Amino acid sequence: MAMGQVFMFNAALLSFLLMSYTALANNQSYLAIARGSSISTRDGTAPILVSPNGAFSCGFYKVATNAFTFSIWFSRSAEKTVAWTANRDAPVNGNGSRIVFQKSGSLDLLDYDGTVVWSTNTAAIHADSAALLDTGSLVIKDQGGNPLWSSFNSPTDTLLPSQSMASNTRLVSASAKGLLSSGFYTFYFDSNYTSSLIYNRKNEISTTYWPTHNRSWANNGNRNQYCGLDSKGAFVAGDQLKFEASDLGDDIMRRLTLDYDGNLRMYSLNMMTGSWSISGVLLARLCEIHGLCGRNSLCRYTPEPECSCLEGFEVTQPSDWSKGCKRKRNSVASNDFIFTELPGTDFWGYELNYNMSMPLQKCIKMCLEDGDCQAVGVRGGTGQCYRKTLLFSGKEFPEPYNDIYMKVPRAALPLPKLPSSSTQGHVCKFTEKMAPPIQISQKKFKFGYFLTSALTLLAVEVTLIFIGFWVLHKWKRRPEPTDVGSMIIYGQFCRFSYRELQEVTNCFHEEMGRGGSGVVYKGVLTDERKVAVKKLSDMIQGEQEFRSELSVIGRIYHMNVVRIWGFCAEKTHRLLVSEFVEKGSLDRVLFDNLNLYPVLQWSQRYNIALGVAKGLAYLHHECLEWIVHCDVKPENILLDEEFEPKIADFGLVKLLGRGAGAQMLSRVHGTRGYIAPEWALNIPITGKADVYSYGVVLLELVMGTRVSSQVVQGEGEVEVEMAVGHYAKTLKKKLASKDQSWLLEFVDCRLSGEFDYVQAAMMLKIAVSCVEEERGRRPNMSYVVETLLSLVE
């Protein structure tokens, strides 16, 4: 009898185990997977991994009929809300693609043909298993259960509670609602430890729209590159940015997402319905987000945010307002313009000039005489006037302080003012539960403390005032150059001592290059970042220039301009610390006669031409102070690992104040072969001098040789100008002909004919217009960017 009971028990246990195994196999859900496991997309979209608390699932997520991503999503939301994706921009085929935990320890996503689309790269660190934690983090563990890799360290567009973000991570928005692919907005920490939002669309110049002008906390010390969302619903960053959920408290499932429209929002999950509600938002005024309405349109509050086209324009794509508005087909070209007033309105950047005090009519007259001017902006009650070359990211302010006067053909304007709505319908309206106002963390003021210490503080203050006057008097009498540190802190620089930079560069051991403004050395900071340290020469007599340059350069941020990270202004030493760009200067690669570098392919050359144009357009039109580089040449164009260009060498930068359209310089700046003719004419210098230099660089990108090399060694600058003029004259004739076979001989022979004929002809056409002897006939850099972008596939 006992033997029979044992047999029955064992049979029941075996049956239970078999059924459990069958159910598990059918569901394909695990708490962990071990090395050697392989799961295919053919197994369906059931979760591969489930967190122990059941809150998160991980597996194949269907993004199209036959396309899948490897993602993590919320199990309890009514619809699959994705929190993380491994391959958001490279979905795999649904026919046989698989996730494989290699025996070597690397978790790999393989496409149907075996191509590795994504990998944790954990093969060399003794990985043993993969699991999905209760926090929503996918982790790779060793045999002891210690985490070796985590999805929390590479977020996509969402942060989860207990997940932090540091300097080497960022959030990138989705491209559209319901899609997972990368979009145009990024949330990250810049090199100054400031949390920032940036708009970077292919057909636009990248722009930072957060922090806004009146919400910058650059002077709040004790910052670090760190931020995170806690379990109660508070988002806190190291630069003292903080905002909280409206339902602040425990036991609520939340997420912080950079949405496709560029706003950072906090969401809370209703566990009963499985629906999400907005419980916090960073930008309460949605019109502050760049790119929301696109070019030639206006974001206004009615009272909800709404986009409308400016007079004479029509929406480019009604389903996507971010593409802006285009001129109406029936718009007739005319030289008879009038100006329509847009009260309480402004457009971002693209300012042609700035005048501190000028009557409106005079400012409008200047705009009428300038073919590049599209509008005039006026600061209310100040007399400040500026001209716009492009109408981008327009917005209407609830509290007007700026007016725009738009230049339109008289024939195209039946009404004197902009209609209240130029289009029907709008995708830009939102219904949101707004978060409390953004707060800067600070201790609560306690009135009792003030009462008990007021008299003591008053006495101390009086004493300190007398001491301050005495120190200031002594400081003014110092013979040494003034220390610029306190002024540059506002510019968000790191300040280095000369001894620190000696250590960083190993006593200035490794020289990277030299020019008229100084010598550049390679260095490594204590955090192991590589840097370029430039010793500026002959700076004693130019200290005021150095101070003004630094105050502006510290606010420059563009992907095609080298970022300055810090400075040293100690006694007679003047040094700049900038980012290190891996592949060095363009001249080394383009004019490589020793075959040390691979030949630049045509697509790389075109991208370099476009990137440099974007960088110069930013310097000329979008900075708080417009900048003329004065020495644009291949040696001052650096290439990163992806051959993306960055404009360098600000030792020769000249700033154009907004109160003047040009500047008189005491001596000629620049390099033989790239200097514009006006340098020899003793006339004010404008950004058109850079345009000329850019034109020469374009010629050299196409030809693969220096234009100046065609001149006999020892000849003067006049002969070089004649050589440039000869090329321009010859090219004008050739470009006018329909036969383009001559391009094969003109374009760099090292390309063996592998280039785009249309792009090559356009680059040469632009180059010819840029090197016009009369600078008024040269284009501005914004026009060059638009022209080059028009031929990008």
From TrEMBL:
UniProt keyword terms in alphabetical order: ATP-binding, Disulfide bond, EGF-like domain, Glycoprotein, Kinase, Membrane, Nucleotide-binding, Receptor, Serine/threonine-protein kinase, Signal, Transferase, Transmembrane, Transmembrane helix
Keyword Cell membrane in annotation: no
E.C. numbers: 2.7.11.1
Molecular function GO terms recorded: ATP binding; protein serine/threonine kinase activity
GO biological process, one term: response to other organism
Record InterPro entries: Bulb-type_lectin_dom, Bulb-type_lectin_dom_sf, Kinase-like_dom_sf, Prot_kinase_dom, S_locus_glycoprot_dom, Ser/Thr_kinase_AS, SRK-like_kinase
Signal peptide: 1-25
Pfam families: B_lectin, Pkinase, S_locus_glycop
One GO cellular component term noted in the UniProt record for this chain: membrane
Catalysed reactions listed for this entry: L-seryl-[protein] + ATP = O-phospho-L-seryl-[protein] + ADP + H(+); L-threonyl-[protein] + ATP = O-phospho-L-threonyl-[protein] + ADP + H(+)
Domain Protein kinase: start-end pairs: 506-792
Main location: membrane
Annotated localization: Membrane
Gene3D superfamilies in the record: Bulb-type lectin domain (2.90.10.10), Phosphorylase Kinase, domain 1 (3.30.200.20), Transferase(Phosphotransferase) domain 1 (1.10.510.10)
Coiled coil: none
Bulb-type lectin domain sequence ranges: 24-153
Listed SMART domains: B_lectin (SM00108), S_TKc (SM00220)
Kinase is among the record's keywords: yes
TM region(s), chain numbering: 447-472
Family: Belongs to the protein kinase superfamily. Ser/Thr protein kinase family.
PANTHER family the UniProt entry points to: OS07G0415500 PROTEIN, RECEPTOR-LIKE SERINE_THREONINE-PROTEIN KINASE
Protein name in UniProt: Receptor-like serine/threonine-protein kinase
Organism encoding this protein: Urochloa decumbens
Lineage: Eukaryota, Viridiplantae, Streptophyta, Embryophyta, Tracheophyta
